[in-house]
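Next comes this protein.

***
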Amino acid sequence: MFICNFKINSKKVFKIIFIILLILVLVMCGFGMYKVFHNEENELPDLEKTLKGQVNVISASNYTNVLQEVHSNLDTYVGMRIRFIGYVYRVYDFTPEQFVLARQMIISSDMQAVVVGFLCHLNGADKYNDGAWVEAEGTITKGDYHGEIPVIEIDSIKEVTTPSEEYVYPPDDTYVATSSSL
């Protein structure tokens, strides 16, 4: 029979366990600090990344997100170039050079919609009829229409056929209906 006798120094074991736990906590804190200061969230959001290029194409899927972002943070986007498709929409107090390059935004499950879009400025805009679908390219500027809003100074425009994605939907989880009777 073989008997082995071990004597364990409990103070020494406690110190070793404490040091190991302290090192683990420090490593986890260091990793957490690294994530905080070098996180991808500190980079520009996808929308801003999209708009930082030369000509930024707005599609039906990001139309209302871009519209909302540009209206909310106009100073950030002044001078940026965009290209998008919409239809010509005018109201009674527009000048002959103004129109909204518009889309219908679905606001309810029974297909009720409201007109949304960017106010545009184009010399000779009166040659485009209301409801005509166009693709326009221009630069975001500050303008005034019942307050400061983004205005697209159109550089090029051409008539196009009605797109397959004619309607757009509210911005991601942020739309609040202003009326239940729309």
